[in-house]
Input
Amino acid sequence: MSEAPLLQARDLHKTYRMGRLDVPVLRGADFTMRKGEWVAILGSSGSGKSTLMHLLGLLDEPDRGRGGVWFEGQPVAGLRGGARNHYRNRSVGFVFQFYHLLPELTVLENAMLPCRVAGAGRAAAGHVRSLLTAFGLDHRLHHRPRELSGGERQRVAIARALANEPRVLLADEPTGNLDARTGGEILDMITGLHRQGLSIAMVTHDPAVAARADRVVQLVDGRVADR
Amino acid sequence: MYAIQLANRYLTSRIIPLIAVGAVALCVALVVIVVSVMSGFLDMLKSSGRTLMGDVVINYPVRGMPWYDELVRAIEAEPAAQAATPLVDTYGLLRMPYPQGAEKEVVTANVWGIDPASFERVTDYSRTLHWRPPADQAEADAMGPDDPRRKLSPRIVADGLALRRGDTGEPGLVMGLHVSIVNERQRDGSYRSRYGWFMPDHRVTLTLVPISAKGTVAEPREQVFPVVNEFRSAVYQIDKNRVMIPLAEAQRMLRLDEGTLHDMEAPPNADGSQPVLGRSPARVHRVLVRARPGVTPDQLREAVETAYARFEQACAADPSKLVKPPLREMVSILTWEQHLRDLIGPVEKEREMMRILFSIVYLVCAGLVLSIFWAIVQEKSRDIGILRSIGASRGGVLWIFLQYGLVIGLVGGVVGIGLGWLVITNINAIHQAIGERAPLWSWTACFAASTIALLMTVRQGLRGVLLPTLLWLVGAITLGLAGAGLMAHRGTLIWDPAVYYFSTIPDRVDWVTAGITWLGAVVFSVLGASVPAAKAADIDPVRALRHE
Output
């Protein structure tokens, strides 16, 4: 019997309301990712890539009764309250295009935040420090985000996403806000993480970036198609 | 844990929370200052009232109570009573020794005829005597060279206590410190003689008008008294109006002393006089009673009621007493608080009214925190989205902002109480400073600072940065206006003792009120924070993260 996919979505529908208009973004999107796989979700702007990512990470909910998400074979889209928060805190790690670091916190504090949310502040400090050191940020631990370059900020964001050792990294255009060279460095880093066994779902509109992944799926008209 | 960390960072890395803390502090300080002054005023009023008249007052004005010695003995036989003293209470005219020349100033005065020894036992009268020689050399050294206390006769306190000059034996008069115009209060609370006059060196003429049993006015009587001391009760109205003379003198001048009782209905004797019926006893208008320690004024009043009933029965049964004491219904027996109800009641109501009115500041606290936090939540919605994306619960987000409000209430309240304490403890010095012209250094310093701020405005303006330019300009204008205000200030009397009874402003913090106000500020700050906190918890993380 084959192993259940690590992350799976079936027949996802998502509609946003824009004033009086209902704008369907996802129209029955399916997505499957095996353990240790790097899947790139390619699509043009507004195709629903980020929406799919948000649904996979339980930041958002699909339209009522229309589709579901499974993590390690278990349905998770309907999770509520603490279980939903726990999924976001432990099972997945988000990386965003605009880094989304908290400006009041230092590099170390930002990276530690998921551990603190999980109630494991001090215990996890060593692991987070080693992550930051591995990402070349050991000299920046007590700096604020505004004192960092774009590439450094994204590395901090990746360290934060990995702080609780999630099973899946959900990256939404992680190089979209960086120049080509820095973007390349970030992709090298993500590639390294993937080689260490990390499962990655990455949204991008850049085919060159998508080419680094094991598999590329494309979002067209709110549906996913393998390339 | 993360909630504490974030609340702490939001508090310490931004200026807006400091503004909120400042606003809450000002609100709390305002309440603490106003209610403390009102409470202090009330306490002074009550404490002075009790000091001046004991715990219970028996009052029968105009005609006076006969056989008061027996009444005093009957009251003192009650276990609840510590001492009782008879008193004559009337109004008279006092001719002052000033100014020089024939035309002397005449003032009206509330005259109390007292028995000094028993009056002291009931009222602590000796503590109110103002003029005392320095207790030791250190106290003498602290007095200025013109201080009249330096040249006081060593017997001045004894004379004041006895209401009699020790050297000549003549009856003396003790007057309130503000009855004459010669005592000028200094900034440090001491008094200096104005125009070189010192009342205990002088004599005054007192005129009293006796009133007959029928209520008609008899021939006024006048008597010259040496001023043997002055007293200060701290109640301005009393210090401004009251003089005290020996009881016997007051009774004699008012024809309340012992005399002969004539039968006015019988045919006259051969010499034209009316036949004598017997002795007419001396009378007093009041008897003041002091309670034993541990006895409340109400308990004492009940004991005095009993004693009066016994006294009334004893007099009625005694055929030798042709003059009977007034019926109980005609006599008022009141505790000092009841006696001063007309004075204390409105002040108590005023204080409660102030408490209620100033409780509006709680709403101000809540409103301030709400509006400031609303703005912060708007600004921090992306952070909230991030927190939700890494698994923070709604409750966690809510708690960040509630903690934030809690800390603002706690810190603002403590700062406010500190500010209130600072103002209250220095309120008399502040009042004194407001009452005088501003010193030269104060407004020149303001103008100098304003000039510097103006130069900084020009400098920042030349650099082309708008916000610092504007801030320096606001500073320059504010300092300039403050300087102009101080320069134009000619002194304003805010606390007029003639209106507020006391010559000094109460300067003790009402800690109960301070505590309640602090608690109120905390509760209402948290309540104010709860609305934006709930809004923060409800923020959709997807929308928040898209907001870039």
